[in-house]
Write a structure and sequence with these properties.
The chain is 5% helix and 67% strand. With 724 residues, the chain is mainly β. The protein has a 22-stranded antiparallel β-barrel. A six-stranded mixed beta sheet has the order 5-6-11-12-9-10, with no helix packed on it. The longest helix has 9 residues, at 98-106.
Amino acid sequence: MAQTPAVQTIPAPEKAPEKAKDVNLNEVVITSKKPLIVLEIDKTVVNVEAMISASTSNTLEVLEKTPGISVNSSGEISLNGRNGVLVLIDGKNNYMSGQDLAAYLKSIPGGNLDKIELIDNPSAKYDASGNAIINIRLKKNRIGGFTGNVALGVSQGKYARNNDAVNLNYNHKKLNLFANLGYNYEKNYRKDHFDRRFFNEAGALTSMVDLQNNFVFKDRGLNANFGMDFTASSKTVYGVIFNVNKGTRNGMFDYKSIDYDSTHHLERIGKGDTKARDTRTNLGFNLNMQHKFDNKGKELSADINYLNYQSNGNQHLQNFTYAPEGALLGHEQFRYVIPASIDIYTVKADYVYPLKNKARIEAGFKSSIVDNDNVNQFYNVNGAEQTIDNSQSNHFKYHENINALYLNGQKSWKRLGVQLGLRMENTMVRGEQLGNNEVKGSRFTKNYTGLFPGAFISYKLDTLGNNTLVLMAVRRITRPNYQLLNPFLFYRDRYSYTSGNPLLNPQYQSRIELKYQHKQFLNMGLSYNKFSDLIFQTTEAVDDIFTTRPKNIAGGFMLLLNTTVSTSPAKWWNLNYTARLSHIGINGRVYTENLHFDVNILRLEVNNYFTFGSNWNAELGGYYASRDMNGQTLTRGMYRVNSGVQKKIWKGKGSLRVAFDDLFHSWIYNNRSLSLKQSEYFQTSESDTQRISLAMTYRFGKDAFARKRRHNNNALDEEKGRIE
């Protein structure tokens, strides 16, 4: 997207000293264009401001539209075909996953985002968890004076949404203050249709269930991020950041089931609904420091973090069962009260020591503690009377302590570059399911240490560095979060339950990859990924009830080819093309069934960016996903088309944007099951993805003041400008 940087004032040329005259300063406005994607050797940087639809979207939707990133119907995020991604906010782990992370990202408007860093192969400096890293950078200005921007966005599909963001920054001498404020409202729906079939041991059909689930919910989210940087000297900066994130969700879930026998004769009808309300309050506090010992690159940085997550869920459920002729056979009501509390403490430090001849050493440590307290109280309801059922209630406590050390060494020659790293992490886990008068308590502990090496070798094929080869190898770990370890059995509908697994072990993956990059035009990567103790969402069929829980299966592999091309067919047209072709194989046993499956998967993304004059921009993009496998589910291919138009106003400081998402409402999931014991299912799922959005953005502040300060070559300002 075209941008207007700071205005520079240039005085008129000096004349002979005849007589003092007033000099009028002429403004020179320099216009530059920020590309959507910048390819670097170790990561890909996506400039969110270049996405026209970002101002009308929340952060999860921005990720979904980001080249290389996929988000499935459950909110699980993958990068370049790799699941188990670690998502960071400004380089910091939020220790959420699954639906909690999705809800958190939905509460942050896209207008708060600056850029997104995609790291396929993280070095030993980063946590070993996750198959890849997505680092979301919030907007933070470094120019002098008071500056900021506002983004207001509304969206209409079947239901309306809005995403509003304000970013403020004040920089004066040694002090830099910044704030990111965001509010979002979302109303959405999801329709799931299941066709479930059951068989006897001989393979003959015995019964069928036609199940329709409808879910409508309203989300409200508030996110506020406040920070301060104090430049104590040209070498030392101290910072503090405070974050508060609040949200509420009100949902209405209803279902209708029809049971048939093997001859398709109606046996019974079921109906039910769930009224749910969930609230959350997330607080975060960060202290950070950076000290540069000299101007040669020797530096020390440190962070201390505290996070507190509080949530309170309340669900009221009821079920009705009817005979084929309509007579009521049964009615039940019950209620879940689900409070949860999480405390997270982390401390880390990183040290960089430069050596002679373009070499350096990096070392550091990190320690984190997570304490989770999760309660599930089940009440039977009879009119106004509620009675707790301890046999279906649960109180789960979870404690995790991870301590890590790492060492990195780097050396560069004219064409050759080498980086070798090793990270050691020790994990201590303690889980306890508290007992009551009907349920016996249980405990488990885990203590394991892992070594995670990383090696990167780059070679420039020409003296200008236009063509580069990179060979890399890394080992990573995916730890199960506390939700996956909680053994509590949770009711969804009459035929569907979910549960955790306290016996779950971490998943390990090893990867070797060869990459080729030609300028900013072409980036290709071929990798082989091997998985052991694969964490797999399994489905167990007992009678007509499906219970989903995670398990470790033997293992799997993925052969992946990534290709990204960025080009300009014309001065007014930029084209970005990304293709990912992968071959995935799974080999294991799920309950009584063998799971041997191989699938070829294609992901194709095409994004066009058009510039019409100095004030008009447009984009047109498409995404195609071939069939895919997620747990014991195979998803059929699908596609979507997005577009947008932008008009710059107010001398480039503001913009009006119109965006269209999923133009043909083609983003619909069609799933079928794999390796279920004497059963199978087919599913169709859709949500409110077809939308039209309108946004207005405005940037304000005295940019000229910042230009003047930098023109004065103030050493302190230069140092502040180098700090991220």
